[in-house]
Amino acid sequence: MMFELLLVVILAPVMFLALRKTDDTNLQIGVLPLAILVVLALPEESAMSASVAVALGTVGYLAYFFGARVRREPMPDYASAGSSFPAPEVALSDGARASGGFMPTPAGPDGPYYRPNSPAKRQLAEDGTKGEPMRFAGRILNNDGRPVEGAIIEIWHADGAGEYDHTDFNCRGHQTTNQDGQFVFDTVKPKGYGVRSMSLIGTVDFRSAHIHVKIRVGEPTFTTQVWFPDDARNRLDVAYWAFKKTNVVEFEPSQPVLTARFDFVLDQAG
Ligand SMILES: [Fe+2]
């Protein structure tokens, strides 16, 4: 009896720690099946105690997980991203941001949070939107590297707390490029969202910070996403892995506001 109790006291925290330490990784999905296999391999007199330990560790982890969700820290409330931005011309880079010169920017899916019919605007984030004020600027080029005038670029993204506006058009809008193919959105830096990638209880909707983009020059519409180079969640965002060489913004140095820069290259001749 003493031995069984000791087994539970030792193994339950081990189970809890195994789940806790694999938090936010794809390894977590394997912890419970592995523990069950270990229990099945044990001699009968130990198996019952080990099962209790696995159950206790798992229940303890679930309590910890949901407790942490309830206590989730609020994002700092940044100053309004209103019209206080200065509006200097953004210096243009020499070439496309995509690797290999004017290689077309790879396309990506819409994702689940697109809302059609967004308004035309430059100031994308309403006053009081959570997040660091950020300018998102760049150009739309054809595959000769020449600017595309009159392209409609529509973007949508989560705010600095990782929340999309599902009822209105905050952090959603479109513009038409000028004769230099330029666009400039004043918004906030988005935050990633989702809690787990493939955990026991989490969501598969785990994303690092990104901006969704649609570009229309006639038909069809080109859709993609761009990521940020400084987001620690990138390594866990499966979508990022496929686009990390081509669809990552650059931060423009020496700008009065944080400026993220990306030139989109369309797969069309000039
Ligand atoms: Fe998204």
What does this 3D model show about the protein?
This protein has helices at 2-21, 31-41, 44-70, 238-243; strands at residues 133-141, 152-156, 172-176, 182-188, 210-216, 221-227, 250-251, 258-265. The protein is of the alpha+beta class and 270 residues long. The protein folds into two domains: 2-70, no CATH class; 77-270, Sandwich (Protocatechuate 3,4-Dioxygenase, subunit A). The strands form two sheets. It has a four-stranded mixed sheet, with no helix packed on it. Strands 3-2-5-6 form a four-stranded antiparallel sheet, with no helix packed on it. It starts with a helix and ends in a 5-residue tail after the last strand. The structure holds fe (ii) ion (FE2). Fe (ii) ion binds at residues 111, 113, 207, 210, 212.
Summarize the SSE layout with pairings.
Elements: H1 2-21, H2 31-41, H3 44-70, E1 133-141, E2 152-156, E3 172-176, E4 182-188, E5 210-216, E6 221-227, H4 238-243, E7 250-251, E8 258-265
Parallel strand pairs: 1-8
Antiparallel strand pairs: 1-4, 2-3, 2-5, 5-6, 7-8
Helix pairs in contact: 1-3, 2-3
The structure holds fe (ii) ion (FE2).
